[in-house]
Specification:
heterodimer; A: 80 residues; mainly alpha; 66% helix; B: 127 residues; Histone, subunit A; extended; CENP-S/Mhf1 (chain B)
């Protein structure tokens, strides 16, 4: 039985995302650091959607809407 | 200028795509759908958060007088939340031990090869 596939960000995407934001063009990223950043970003997105869904459940809403996400956003940003 | 803008849009699209997949998995086991705008908002937040992360990482590396961001910098980045920190620590340990294993395997195979062609070219496979 194939369990749910774990979706992850591609290593290439993460590496590009990071290097484009570096001020100094000499700055590089090690391979393991890229893998771990992918993990952090995945946790961030998962946490965002889980909290938004919890908010939607609390408000007894059928669908998770932007307003639910807006409500959990400040605490989410403080936690990362 | 136009080139970087296009690159940026492509990166955003990539983040959006994976965010959509992750949201779908969570929607499946939570029994509630995500509106398209919510997914877009989460993707945009992740994208911008990544920008902050990158800047932090660069400063961490510079503070350690390095030009390369490494695992230690990422661990420092995850300090705000204890749970995340332990999780990242665990993952980094896993990665480190995987590397160690690979190294040992390589060492063994090179030793074997050396043994086979005895003293043909000594010291070629030295690290």
């Amino acid at each position: 039985m194939a369990d749910q596939v774990e979706f992850e960000f591609k290593k290439e995407t993460i590496a590009k995302l990071l290097t484009k934001s570096f001020k100094d063009s000499k700055t590089k990223v090690s391979g393991d650091a890229v893998v771990l950043m992918g993990e952090i970003l995945k946790v961030f997105v998962e946490e965002a959607s889980r909290r938004a869904m919890k908010q939607a459940t609390a408000e007894d809403s059928e669908q998770v809407e932007v307003e639910h996400f807006e409500k959990i956003l400040p605490q989410l940003l403080l936690d990362f | 200028m136009d080139e970087t803008f296009a690159d940026n849009q492509r990166l955003k699209a990539a983040v959006h795509f994976t965010t959509g997949q992750i949201c779908q998995t969570i929607a499946d086991d939570g029994g509630r759908k995500f509106s398209r705008q919510t997914i877009a908002a989460i993707a945009e937040t992740a994208f911008r958060q990544c920008d902050t992360f990158a800047k932090d990482l660069e400063w961490f590396a510079r503070h350690a007088k390095r030009n390369t961001v490494n695992v230690e910098d990422v661990k420092l980045l995850s300090r705000h939340s204890t749970a995340l920190f332990t999780h990242i620590q665990q993952r980094s340990d896993e990665l480190a031990s995987a590397h160690q294993e690979q190294k040992e395997k390589r060492k063994k195979s090179t030793a074997k090869r050396k043994h086979q062609d005895t003293e043909d070219d000594p010291g070629q496979n030295e690290d």
